[in-house]
Here is the input.
Amino acid sequence: MAGFLNMRRYDDAQTIVRQIVDRTQGEIRLALPLGLGKPVSLLNALVQAACDDRNISLKIFTALTLERPTPASEVERRFMEPAMDRLFGAYPEILYARLIRDGDLPANIEVSEFFMLAGRWLGVEAAQQAYISANYTHARDVLMRLKPNVLMQLVAEEEGHFSLSSNTDISADLFRFRARGDANFIAVFETNPRMPFMEGPGATLSAEEVEMVLDPPEPFELFSSPRPPLKLTDHAIGLHVARLIVDGGTLQIGIGAAGDSVAHALLLRHRGEAATIQADCPFHIAHDAGGSFNTGLYAVTEMLVGGLMELFDAGVVRREVDGIAIHAGFFVETRDIYAKLRSLPAEQRTRIAMMPVSFTNALYGDEEGKRAARKDARFVNSAMKVSALGDVMSDCLGDGQVVSGVGGQFNFVEQAFALEGGRSIITLPATRMSRGKLESNILWDLPAVTVPRHMRDIVVTEYGIADLRGLSDAQVIIALLNIADSRFQDELMEKAKAAGKLPKSHAIAKAYSQNLPELVAQWLKPHRAKLPDFPFGTDFDEIEQILLPALSEINNQSATLSGKARLLAASLTKPPHPREDEALTRMGYDRSRGLTARILRGGLRRVALER
Here is the structure.
């Protein structure tokens, strides 16, 4: 199947599906890209055909099934529903996802994922049981053992050529394997004019390499992943991490608040605006603040994120390896990033190469060249919890429920240890609210481990930097105590002493004994103009941006009776938020004096005092 001389095009998904069923004799093993690369029109037609004809066997191997969120409460519904299309795009529902969630997936359809949309599948037994735990680099090999006979993908098209666009991550390798005779599958594409035409070795294909193409009369709107607001905690972490990035080095960051905060801090550093903020830092930081990026950074990352694009535009990411400033494996972003990629001038677009993750996430293959290119590498990834001995928990809960997956985190930690000058940086806030209760994210031990302690390196919280590589267990515990929240330091220290891992005489030094959110606020509030909630823009309107922190506060507090009491008290005793009436109107509570409206007022008033 290496070359199809008669590619056929259709505007009807059902016609293509009937041919797939005929060609495979109803035994379909589908290689389906993660995230944005799913051809939803084709996919839903295929799943529906298997639902209608139980003689069809459909096995799907994929990851990161994108879904628009389902509001978990009446307050969330009032906030989300009016803005759903604007925030997430009018993205169609993926049929198999609904069937799994409703418990209606027929026995002749199997769906296995190696990475999940974060938190989306908690408590869904079918999804949890079908999850396959694998490093991103190994997911391809798991798929190859399943012997896929169909590959479907959403693509871009220009001048008779197709681009794998958002998903070269595994697909590029599959086409390479097929060309050399190690794989045998039917390639079926769905075109979408909103997909950016991206290039790179293996990222573009000719018509001869594709058997069937769907050109839907009404292409669907791409999924948009709205940027989260950055809290002062996020900015503090970003400013600390910015100290660790070496000019002329290599950078990997991920999506979400962690990636955005690091990218923004690097821009501040490059413009000479971070030094003043960092000089005011009340926490003990041994690392130099760093200066502008005169040589620039080279980015090698599994995920092409908006933060990297901002660094690329500003000239921070500009060091080139064989003419390329960014090598990336996939992207799922906001609509403005898709538009930016589509409109990039040719000379800029060719400096971004989409690659398989076998390139970005590993040193195998041209190892000498990769080692030379990836000098002073900094791989920045976030975690849920860290143990006092340096274990990292990022993918699942203590009962085995998968939150997301390992993804490429372990790959990049492994690279950090393999590369001369390479470092892995794990970021996390020091605390979190869980069911109305404050918890430390640095614990004595963890219920699950993603990265084991023998690969401990650098950990960053809002309170500082713990450089753990090569330290003894006692030294590691001390370093992590020093960046833990002070409300939990004594308990953690006593557990370490009771286990015989810390000298009985150890005490927390005064410089580390005031690790409290109030001190972070005292440090960063005077610099708020340079530390906005959305440094790279947002699809949330002005009032929604005011509501977001209030809704977060309500979510944190309303899990307990005492928390609800605090919200109600604030609604009666605290001064009104300057735009409280507008916020209540947006939520449909403008004429309400009910309990929920009072709680919303309380949330607005509490966060107004904190900002």
Observations:
- The mean pLDDT is 95.
- Residues 542-557 form the longest helix (16 residues).
